[in-house]
Amino acid sequence: MLKGGEAGVSGCCFLDGRLWGKESGLSRPYPVVCHLLDTSAVFQELWGAVVGDGTKSAVAGALGLGLAETRSVVSFWAGLHDIGKISPSFQAQVPLLYGPVRDDPGYVNAPGAEGERDFRHERASHWSLYGLLSEAGYPIDERLMHRSVAHQIAQLLGGHHGVFGSVLKAKQARRASDYNPGLGWGGWADQRQVHFDELRRVTGAFAVPRGGLPAGLAVVVAGLVVVADWLASQVAVIEPRLPGAGWSGSAAEVDAHWQGAVGSAREVVRAARLGRAGFSAEEFGSMFPFAPNSLQRDLVEHLPAMVAKDGPGLVLVTAPTGDGKTEAALFAASLLGRAANARGLYFALPTMGTADAMLPRVEAYAGRALSGERALMLLHSMAWLGSPGDDGCAGVPVHQADGGISAGRGTAVEADGWLRGAKRGLLAPLGVGTVDQALGAVLPLRYNVLRLLGLSDKVFVLDEAHAYGPWMHQLLVRLLEWLGEMRAPVVLLSATLTGRTAGSLVDAYRRGAGIREPAGVVPRYPGWLFASAAADAVSPARGTKSDRVRMLKVSHRPVVWDASESVGVPVLECGRRAVLREVLAPVAAEGGTALVCCTTVAEAQQTYRDVCAAFPELAVAPGGVRLLHSRYPADERARITAECEAAYGKPGDGPASARSASVLVATQVVEQSLDFDFDLVVSDLAPIAQLLQRAGRGRRHRRGPLGRPAWAAVEDEPALVVLDPLTAEAPEPPRSWGRVYDAGLLMRTSQVLRGRASGGIAVPDDVQRLVDEVYEEDFVDRLEGAAREELVRLDEERLAGEAAERHLAAWASICSPADVKGDLSRLSAREAGVTQELLTTRLGADSGRVLCLYQQPDGRTTLDPEGMADVPGGGRWGLRPDELAAVARRVAPVPGRWLRGGDSGNAVPGGWGTHPSLRDLVLLHMVPAGEEGWVCRLGRCTVSISGVGLEAQ
Fold first, then answer.
1. Which of 235, 298, 580, 635 is the most interior residue, by most CB within 10 Å?
2. Alpha-carbon dihedral of residues 76, 77, 81, 83, nearest 10 degrees?
3. How confident is the model at residue 298 (pLDDT cuts 50, 70, 90)?
């Protein structure tokens, strides 16, 4: 073993400074003890700068320690995460550095121990730390190892690469090196002990916890360990701190390194912008430049007293589209966040488009209402292309050192992904993004604890809570259980939410907070309710007035379904095409705007062609007929969306005039969060909740007496035309719709509209009753004969399908916090058959992504049909950032069935690299097909692209 006069010593063993911890990308190796010290120092700074006082007190209470003792102890734990690198299997990865240690007789290896590459260093940390912590006096229970404090901390630290190992058996833990030769014997165990003792000495962590951490606190500490490790592993952090030649690891040298680590940790954490936002504004008028409406005013007048009495918790707001739910949510978030001393908020939405649209609204709110660190991240799979700032942060410029990581290749990919992508994003104080970014926290994905950490001390705001199917709803239920466990405030928003769904969400949150009794929630529409996370208190739902009481004039039009017919086919007298011509005629003749909402992309494309053929003068006018759906390249869809926002968005200040004639043909992409305002809404039949969402785009804003055409002058009587294919002759939905909507819900909605259309729908008074009516169990009793039998059959299919999806989501997700019971491996374990693909996509989502490459007449291949952007070749390191962005901006989603039968010629070139945005991307080699269109053959499909987007035959 190493000999040295003043080296750090434990018993008769001196600390060996030759044991390396980092070397990749560095000018010389970095001793493992230095990395342990750095990580402890960064964690200590994170504990002070990021963790709230409530969480600190809760951790201290669980451990049975004082606040100062707790800070030292958890910082000590963070440093221990890499103690498993003191093992022959790890040290042998760099033979040149391992040689002197291998030849030292003090280190004893079993045959083959150096080649135990499957015994990774994080596993070595888990296995070795149980014994080290036990020897230090940490409580153990060898009969029930998951209850041992020593084992819980060892397992927690062994999960610093995002996956927790299984609970050890007592006999394994007692003879760890016998079961895992990769740990080594003799000097290896001695060095782990001396490194343990030195780290404990400098951090002052001599206090011994009396208890372990409950699940909600364990994931917070585990996530902070990962963050501290990654921040301390940056090359730019390590390089200036590399010890000089002759550094031996003496006590004095260790002390000096520790002091330097503590001194530099503050800037490391500050540069990462992982601080706390403060909910400083208290008055509504300080947050928004307008007076509150009825819904918002009711929250302002009554919510503060409820929170003051029962503490923070969950607020559920149900109100029509356009009634100011967003501002109501942000006011509630401010109130709850201030009461909980939260460090920020995450605003979750159903789609990338709705998240993009919400970002500037949250940014404006943050500028008015918040103080402190206000780094705002846009979080979804394509956010890196269009977010404000260079790396996805909005608002303040990012001060960040070189983000390179000193680690093995696998670790570097993960860490870099966190620093600049989704894994880091949820840790920013403020975020706007898609709900899947949050739901990943309750799937057994690698580093799910980072997502849980990112949500643990924030206000979680969810828009469109009604918009998710059984799979997503079940995951949301599980997420709310975890948020309740962590006492994170929640605000849920919905325009159309059934009472049963509302109750399941509120009860899940309360269940996580330890309140098992169902709340018996009965929502009011419009209205809101409050459920405390600290007390068994749920306010009765408060009904509020609406500032826009309207009578929705519904024209229910049974039609023969001819939506797929070509333009030249004669128009059927009672067909969909004929009715569209009839209802759009006033638009073409007198001006104004109309939305035609279709069920499928293919029908939207054909409807667009048919409308253009029916109204040729409108078709040639600028913006006369537009088409919006998902099957465009990303940049083209963004351009069209921006045009639509300008044409159909909120009117500016001053008197408005009636708009020129314009028709937007679209799919469901217009349902949620896009602030469009049309004079007329026409929709294919859809479930009642979706129809009401679409109707909310009709005469949404007050435009004044001259702001609409004469046929739409009555602003409080918006018109909705529903094209219903369910007739006595054709009682089933069109085959082209597939499984877009449940056939039973369509039948129920059709029946309700037949009885309601003559009198209209009062908004908001009739909305909740209608939504609940469509889902009533005894709805079938209204029908007779074959219709009744068919609806019973469809209902059984729907309920069975929903149950299967809920079961699969519950099976695939992590357990509830109450079921962790000291075993963190339950956050990583996957059941047999649960794959990464299943976990990261919606159940039944058959989708793919394509990139069109255009073969130009001169032989070049370009990314655009105009021939201006050549296809990049890539290289050894893959595509440059600008090339990668140019490619990603032109990617389009398509049904997965289109891509079956493709060959290797459709794969991404190897020189493009392995960026996640290129994963599973299929290249379509397009050739000209006349009339400004392009075409290619892919398996059994012929895929074309033109002004209407991508199509397949």
1. 580
2. 60
3. very high
Token pair in block for residue 669: 């992409």
Give the Cα separation of 38 and 263 in Å (integer).
10
pLDDT value, residue 833: 56
Q: How far apart are CA 410 and CA 70, in angstroms?
A: 33
Q: State the Rg of the chain over Cα.
A: 31
The string of pLDDT tens digits covering residues 60-93 is 999 999 999 999 999 999 999 999 999 998 998 9
Q: DSSP labels for 57-115?
A: HHHHHHHT--HHHHHHHHHHHHHHTTGGGSSHHHHTTSHHHHHHHHT-TTEE--TTGGG
Give residue-wise pLDDT tens across range 837-856.
Answer: 555 554 335 678 899 999 99
**Does 393 have pLDDT greater than 80?**
no
Of 867, 441, 464, which Cα lies nearest the Cα of 671? 464
Q: Under a CB-based contact definition with an 8 Å cutoff, are residues 123 and 165 in contact?
A: yes
Residue whose token pair is 């002004």:
947
Residue 233 near residue 35, CB atoms below 8 Å: yes
The β-bridge partners of 378 are 432
Cα–Cα distance, 657 to 661 (Å, whole number)? 12
CA 488, CA 736: separation in Å to the nearest integer?
44
Amino acid at 136: A
Collapsed DSSP state (helix, strand, coil) of residue 887: helix
pLDDT of 402 above 80: no
Q: Determine what percent of the chain is predicted with pLDDT higher than 90.
A: 63
d(CA 240, CA 128): 31
Report the chain's mean pLDDT, rounded to a whole number.
Answer: 88
Distances (CA, A) of 513 to 90, 352, 827: 42, 31, 19
CA distances from residue 692 to 724, 747, 752 in whole angstroms, order as listed: 15, 16, 13
Burial readout 794-815 (b: 16 or more C-beta within 10 A, e: otherwise):
bbeeeeebbeebbebbeebbbb
**Phi–psi pair at 663, nearest 5 degrees:** -125, 130
Q: Cβ–Cβ contacts within 10 Å for residue 875, how many?
A: 12
pLDDT at residue 776 greater than cutoff 50: yes
Hey, what are 593's tokens?
């705007």
Q: CA 600, CA 736: separation in Å to the nearest integer?
A: 8
CB atoms within 10 A of CB 77: 26
3-state secondary structure of 714: coil
Looking at residue 413, what is its pLDDT?
25
Tokens (6 digits) for 498: 């059934």
Per-residue pLDDT reduced to its tens digit, 88-133: 989 989 999 988 988 898 888 877 777 777 789 999 999 999 999 9
Instruction: Name the DSSP class of 571.
Output: P
pLDDT confidence tier of residue 2, bands split at 50, 70 and 90: very low
pLDDT at position 416 over 80: no
Q: Are strands 861-862 and 847-855 parallel, antiparallel or unpaired?
A: antiparallel
Task: Provide DSSP, 831-871.
Answer: -TT--HHHHHS-TT--EEEEEEEEE-TTS-EESSTTS-SBP
239 phi, psi to nearest 5 deg? -55, -45
Distance CA 203, CA 44 (A): 9
Q: Residue 192: what are its φ and ψ, rounded to 5°?
A: -60, -35
> Residue 38 in contact with residue 241, Cβ under 8 Å?
yes
